TrEMBL record:
Bias (Basic and acidic residues): 176-198
Compositional bias of kind Low complexity: 65-80
Higher taxonomy: Bacteria, Pseudomonadati, Pseudomonadota, Betaproteobacteria, Burkholderiales
UniProt-recorded name of the protein: DUF4124 domain-containing protein
Source organism of this protein record: Roseateles agri
Residue span, DUF4124 domain: 13-73
Chain intervals for the UniProt region annotation (Disordered): 65-89, 148-198
């Protein structure tokens, strides 16, 4: 019996030692900027009350699409002004990407459709790496556009809708799509001016 009591006492001691310890957090004003520290402020500042501190918890009950900020339809910012990567991002699964890869290997797709589907695969993989700010509705537009590439009508319009969505969701992608359009337009103009060989 003494061994059991010793084991219980040891367990209670372990639990007491392992209990979380709350440290004081200081809110300091340094050169007009707010900083947080576990040490008292050297200049102006005050300790924060435990009630004002929030735990490091993510609410998984919140719908990610509802939590996504509203998109602004604007010109993407310059590279130096770009916003940080989004923290709540809905992306296609590996299964969705595998389906797109199957579609991209179809011999019935036109070169433009094949290139578009391959671009969608690249965008989906970048989304998984945290690039852009996508919702589930965005990827529905992408899926519909990929499916439309097998159709004889509507493929080009579906591509434009999806690319507009990507431009809004990811400034870097918007920039890349705009550059691709410029190259394609120059190539089309060059072909239209080329003499016809007879």
């Amino acid at each position: 019996m003494p061994n059991v009591q010793a084991a219980i006492a040891g367990l209670m001691l372990t639990i007491a030692v392992a209990a979380p310890v709350r440290a004081e957090v200081w809110k300091c004003s340094v050169d007009g900027k707010l900083e947080y520290s576990d040490q008292p402020c050297q200049s102006k500042g005050a300790p924060m009350t435990p009630r004002s501190l929030q735990g490091n918890v993510i609410d998984t009950a919140t719908d990610a699409s509802a939590a996504a900020p509203t998109r602004r339809a604007s010109i993407p910012p310059a590279r130096s002004e770009q916003l940080p990567l989004a923290s709540s991002n809905v992306c296609p699964t590996n299964g969705d990407i595998a389906g797109m890869e199957t579609k991209a290997s179809s011999i019935t797709l036109s070169p433009e459709s094949k290139r578009f589907v391959q671009d969608e695969i690249r965008r989906a993989r970048q989304c998984q790496k945290g690039r852009g700010n996508y919702s589930a509705a965005d990827w529905t537009i992408s899926k519909e556009a990929v499916d439309a590439q097998s159709s004889f009508t509507g493929a080009a319009d579906a591509r434009r809708r999806s690319e507009a969505m990507h431009s809004a969701a990811d400034p870097n992608e918007g920039e890349l799509i705009a550059r691709q359009r410029e190259v394609e337009d120059r190539e089309a103009l060059r072909r239209s001016r080329a003499p016809i060989d007879r």
